[in-house]
Amino acid sequence: MQLSSLGKYLSAPKPVVIFFVLAALTAIIYAPALTGDFIYDDHLQVEQNTSLSSLSNLGEYFQHSTGYYSRSPANYYRPLHMVAYSLLYQLFQTRPLGYHLANILLALAVSWMVFRLALLWLPAGLAGFAALLFTVHPLHVEAVAWIAALPELLCALLVLGTLRLHLKDRWSGLDCVWGGLGLLAAVLTRENALLLPLLALLYDTLTPRRKTI
User: Could you say which DSSP state residue 207 is in?
Assistant: First the structure.
């Protein structure tokens, strides 16, 4: 195959095709997790956490650490982590299938966001291949298969989405609002999102470009 033909082929796939490929791979890889039960921290954070049964507790999650309601020794301040569990509890109660399904859908959303980010620098085919490698990487298995790792997936989605918004060549006032809300939501989901501003600053320093608002 000539280089010109190869380049044309790699840039040809439509985003919708890549999405369905990523969805199929995610489903095939993580379908066995749907039969999994609650394990380790899942018992305290979800199965035995009576606060999740009522949505009236949502506001209180912003006043205490995650361990306050789950009786877990963890003292993380992750209110949106608990809010996500509470919303899922209304649908699935203590049936682990629903929580595993939520993690798998989040994993797909993260892979899709990786593709959207990669499109900034690569043709569609190569960006899709990069997202495919990300999807099948065994390092992600624990985060997807373990119910208690939901905040890792949710935080990754929020961080990547906010970063993608930051990398736009032209900002609107609404983009600034969404970017700030995305950063806040990511930090309230998992504390390592605090590195996002530093990551954005580092990228802007290494690849200076004019931003228009």
Answer: S
Three-class DSSP category at 1? coil
What pLDDT shows up at residue 64?
Answer: 81
Please work out, in degrees rounded to the nearest 5, the angle formed at the alpha carbon of residue 96 by the alpha carbons of 88 and 138.
Answer: 100
pLDDT the model gives residue 208: 62
Residues with Cβ within 8 Å of 190's Cβ and at least 6 positions away in sequence, in order, are: 76, 78, 81, 151, 152, 154, 155
Residue 7: its pLDDT value, please?
53
pLDDT at 11: 52
> Which among 151, 153, 180, 145 is positioned nearest to 165, based on CA atoms?
180
Which stretches of the chain are DSSP H helices?
3-10, 15-30, 41-42, 66-70, 79-92, 96-118, 124-136, 141-145, 150-166, 173-189, 196-206
The answer to whether residues 135 and 26 touch, using CB atoms and an 8 Å cutoff, is: yes
> What does pTM read for this prediction?
0.85
Residues contacting 213, CB < 8 A, separation 6+: 170, 171, 172, 173, 176
pLDDT along the chain (213 residues), means of 10: 51 82 95 91 86 86 77 79 93 93 96 93 90 93 91 95 82 79 92 89 74 48
Rounded distance between C-alpha atoms, residue 125 and residue 128, angstroms: 5
Q: Which residue has the tokens 């569609």?
A: 124
- The amino acid sitting at 116 is R
